[in-house]
Write a structure and sequence with these properties.
Elements: H1 3-24, E1 29-32, H2 39-50, E2 54-57, E3 63-66, E4 80-83, E5 98-103, H3 106-120, H4 131-138, H5 141-155, E6 162-166, H6 167-172, H7 174-185, H8 192-212, H9 234-245, H10 249-256
Helix pairs in contact: 2-7, 2-8
Length: about 260
Amino acid sequence: MNKKIAIILFVLCLTGLHAEKLQDIQNSLIFLSPGVSGTHLTMQNIYMATKGPVHLIKPSRCIKKYNPLRVSIDKTVKPYFHTHNPCHLQLINKDSNKLLLVVRNYKNWMIRQNIAERTKRSLPVPNLGSSEECLKILQTRKSALQYFLYLRAYDRWPQNSRLMLHYEDLIESPKECLQKIQSFLGNESCDIAADLKQLDDLKAKSKEFYNTRLSHYGGSRSSGTANYFDAVCTKDLKSLDEQIRRINPRLYDAYISRYREL
């Protein structure tokens, strides 16, 4: 057996091991999010509801502990699992686990994702003041299709065991979102004001972490909900919305019609 074949077999064995681990997850929360969609902001909310640990499911399906803000973890609490890959959900038991999905305006997400990719590869970022550049990104069908993968994964999960949050609500209505998460997990708080104060402290730490350790994603905008596509005229945005809706009208109308231009 040559070295190359041995390496391939070793990787396949690891993949099988990690797949088996995902199938073994029971009675837990699965947190799914597209990149640059309020992942850390949602993690802070989940932490406030559970005080428990989070384990990341990496692209290779390996699982590792994650605590970038060095918060105090209650080790008696069962961990929840986070992934950016909706395909991982195919390996996880739907009947015994809860699913939390967070999404943001798909137009902002497509541009934000493009900025992150360009920044990561040390390429010039798009000129957000140029309607042509913004519209070119927004017309990338591959990105739109990728966004719908998350909606499909959520839609296939049992209705009474899933919760969808919107990034914009996490920013503008933190109290309501925190209460939704707490209720969803069965951990209602007796002091929501104190929880919100601690959540604000976590947000400040997270923003600093995002702008330093994760600067290759282009920095954080968790302080507001400014749009990346303001340079694009309303007529073009409405046309774009129609194109994206045609990918899957049912999912669009059920979950993201709020982002349609009026």
